[in-house]
Amino acid sequence: MWKKWFTKIKSPEKAPPEPDGIRSIRTTNVFQIINFELYVKPNLMVMAFGVCSITLSAAYLLYLRMNMDPKTYIAISEDGTQTLVQKKSKWE
């Protein structure tokens, strides 16, 4: 009965913290700079920047494609120069 009062009360052991995915792995700074998106925490500003940049890039490529004359193509000559040439029919 007396032992019950004089023994130390042990606190429950705390579990080790959960690993934070790939951020918890030891890597070099070069790897972290090259693979920036793996180490940045999810962020609304980063996501908005990425979506805007992809959307603007796709819109610019679409704009270039829409303004190109469908009857012309870019020909590369033997010396490496590029020229805009009219498409010709095989019958001509």
Automatic annotation (TrEMBL):
It is a single-pass membrane protein. It is found in: Membrane. Keywords: Membrane, Transmembrane, Transmembrane helix. It comes from the Eukaryota. GO terms for cellular component: membrane. InterPro entries: UPF0708 (IPR026686). Its main location: membrane. The keyword Zinc does not apply. The keyword Membrane applies. The chain crosses the membrane at residues 44-64. Signal peptide: none annotated. Belongs to the SMIM8 family. PANTHER family: SMALL INTEGRAL MEMBRANE PROTEIN 8. This is Small integral membrane protein 8.
